[in-house]
Structure formats: C-alpha cells, structure tokens
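Letters spell out the chain; backbone shape is given numerically. Take this protein:
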Amino acid sequence: MQFSLGPILYYWPKQKMLEFYQQAAESAIDIVYLGEAVCHKRREFTFNDYMQTAHLLREAGKQVCLSTMTLLEAPSELRELQRYCDNGDFLIEANDVGAISLLNERKLPFIVGSAISIYNQHALKQMIDLGMQRWVLPVELSQDGLTSILNTDIIQQQRSAFEVELFAFGHLPLAWSARCFTARSEQRHKDQCELCCINYPNGRTVDSQDGQRLFILNGIQTQSGARYNLINQLPYMADNVDIVRLSPQSEHTFTWLEQFRNNVQGEAPQPLADNDCNGYWLRLAGLVQNTV
C-alpha cells in the first residue's frame, strides 16, 4: 500500500506552500499531487512554480502528478488546462471530463479524480478504455460498493490495468458552485473577493444553530464539516485499495502520515477526534463516526 498527498485544496501563502512541499520531499510519502484544483484566482503558485516543485519532488524520489481544476468557467482556465495536459513530464489527475477529452485526444494516460462520478463497472470500464491508469474513488463510495464494482467480470479482466486510490483523511470535497461562498460570507461579490480565502488556511467553518459543525466553506468548494479519517480501516483495505490519499492540512499532515503508515497492519490504531467521521466508507450516513 502506498500513500499520497492530494493537491492543497486551500489558499495558502506561497512561502507556506514552499515549506510544505519541502517537508513532503523529506517525508516518507510516495506520491504527491500538485496544482490548483478549486479556484483559478488562487495564483500564489504559478504553473512554473508547480513545475519547479514537481522536479524537486521527483528528485527526492516521489511520484509527482498534476491535478487539474474541477470547475472550468472561462477560456483562460481552458488554456491553463491545456498547459497542464501538455506538460510533457508528469501524469495528470483529471478532475473534469474536459481534461479527459484533451488527454484522450493526445493519447496520454491519466488519473480519474474523485470529482468525476463513477459508481458502476460500466462507467469505470469506459474510463479504462479511454486511458485511465488510476481511479480515485468518489468520496461517497463505500467499501462494499468498491468491492462490488471490482468483482464484476468486465473489471476483473482489466484489474491489472489500473490502480485504486482512496481519499482517507481530510475534509471531504462535497460540491462546487459558480458562486464563491467564502466571499459571500464576508459580504463580497465573487469578482471582488479580494482573495479572502487566504485568511482561512483550513477553510471557513459553518455551524448549525445548535452548534454542530456542518460544512467547511472553501471558496467555490463546499467540504464536510467533519474530518474524514479512515486510519483504523487500513487493515481491511489491502485487497482493493492500492493508494491511500491524505488531503493536506495546515498543521500536522506529516504526523498523520506517519500514524497512517504505522497502522497499515492494524498495529497502531488511533483514537478518532470528536469531529472525525468515517460513515461513507462503512456504508453509513457520511457524518457518522463508527468506532467498531
């Protein structure tokens, strides 16, 4: 089992990003995803910055992949997508079907990101035929659902052609919108947001009237209020999951990486925090925390 770091989903200052990826280079992580996947206005890191970081990480022995935007809204974003697809060095995580189309035209292999809805063997088979080398599960898909899909005849015949990656730690990306909810929460219009997301390194929290954490606002992205944490489910994943993804947090990401690595065989289980959840994987309501 390998471990990956997903793209940074929040808006961090450039220096913080540089420091984070230096830590990644020195860590035991196997795979690192780079790129802005949420909002095109977030440009602390340019395409060239990502490419320089990609080469640094590759020299440190990491596999590097480039993640594309999930919601494309302007011609400039399409041009940036084309730059990613034409990078010439690194595998692309396609978070939008437009990226899959571009990559297929170029006859390039790709990773299907979790934002692309694949919930049955027929959709998965189509992606394999288009050139998919790795499948990042939709965050709502359960362990039982994954097993059912992988055990179908048409997928069993091609199981060696692709890897399965699971989002296992971090606030779950649930939805994207043309509206910017972080800007709205500060009474700003999207076009005059003044990049206020940078003030919320882990997103802006939304609680119910009775004090329950419901959501995290992250620009145009809405995340789960509870943090998804499958650390204690690792021993039961080995048959179907090849790569376990941790989503970067502003603090303690690499501490959690070591804890995950230490618990692959179930030898170092960790108590879950009150605000952790694991329901989707266990075929329960998403915000549920099951400790059994």
User: Anything to note?
Assistant: The first helix runs from residue 14 to 26. The chain has a mean pLDDT of 95. The CA atoms of residues 75 and 160 lie 37 Å apart.
